[in-house]
Amino acid sequence: MTGTQRRRQLLDVARALFAEKGFDGASVEEIAHRAGVSKPVVYEHFGGKEGIYAVVVDREMDYLLSAITESLSEDMHPRTLLEHAATALLDYVDTSTDGFRILVRDSPVASSTGTFSSLLSDIASHVEHILGVHFSSRGYDAKLAGLYAQALVGMVALTGQWWLDVRKPRKTDVVAHLVNLAWNGLSHLEHKPKVRR
């Protein structure tokens, strides 16, 4: 196995172990054992548990932020953008369950730039910019875009955490209900919302 292949293997093993047991429950010994290598191999590539954990978290954060940013990059109706962003997050929860579990779990090595809350803050910044443009064009106070961005991103992220374990209703139904609440508000909820795409 090349050094690059070994590094990738160790990251994959560590990712699964951190998702299963959390940072505190995982050990270099177990990472090495599951990868079929000695502990010094893990230390050689990552310097220890903190190092491999940091790389795993960075990869997951980059992947999720890219997916959501890409979903917000098109010029389309704000409701459709909201649907795309909510779908991107729930797609990540659905297809990268281990990664999402790692991101939402607290750890002692997480810093202000490597936590789920910092990731949500980055996403909210993108949403704030989009909302600011739409608020201004519709005569709303663009200074409030940050507040609404935080509320929308928080609502979708917390719903994603809940849906991670329950997986009901279907993903598209969850998106439709999130958008229904965000778009129509509690006083104008549709009885049977559907994703419009």
TrEMBL record:
<dbReference type="Pfam" id="PF00440">
    <property type="entry name" value="TetR_N"/>
</dbReference>
<dbReference type="InterPro" id="IPR036271">
    <property type="entry name" value="Tet_transcr_reg_TetR-rel_C_sf"/>
</dbReference>
<keyword id="KW-0238">DNA-binding</keyword>
<protein>
    <submittedName>
        <fullName>TetR/AcrR family transcriptional regulator</fullName>
    </submittedName>
</protein>
<dbReference type="InterPro" id="IPR050109">
    <property type="entry name" value="HTH-type_TetR-like_transc_reg"/>
</dbReference>
<dbReference type="InterPro" id="IPR054129">
    <property type="entry name" value="DesT_TetR_C"/>
</dbReference>
<keyword id="KW-0804">Transcription</keyword>
<dbReference type="InterPro" id="IPR001647">
    <property type="entry name" value="HTH_TetR"/>
</dbReference>
<feature type="DNA-binding region" description="H-T-H motif">
    <location>
        <begin position="27"/>
        <end position="46"/>
    </location>
</feature>
<dbReference type="Pfam" id="PF21943">
    <property type="entry name" value="TetR_C_46"/>
</dbReference>
<dbReference type="InterPro" id="IPR023772">
    <property type="entry name" value="DNA-bd_HTH_TetR-type_CS"/>
</dbReference>
<feature type="domain" description="HTH tetR-type">
    <location>
        <begin position="4"/>
        <end position="64"/>
    </location>
</feature>
<dbReference type="InterPro" id="IPR009057">
    <property type="entry name" value="Homeodomain-like_sf"/>
</dbReference>
<keyword id="KW-0805">Transcription regulation</keyword>
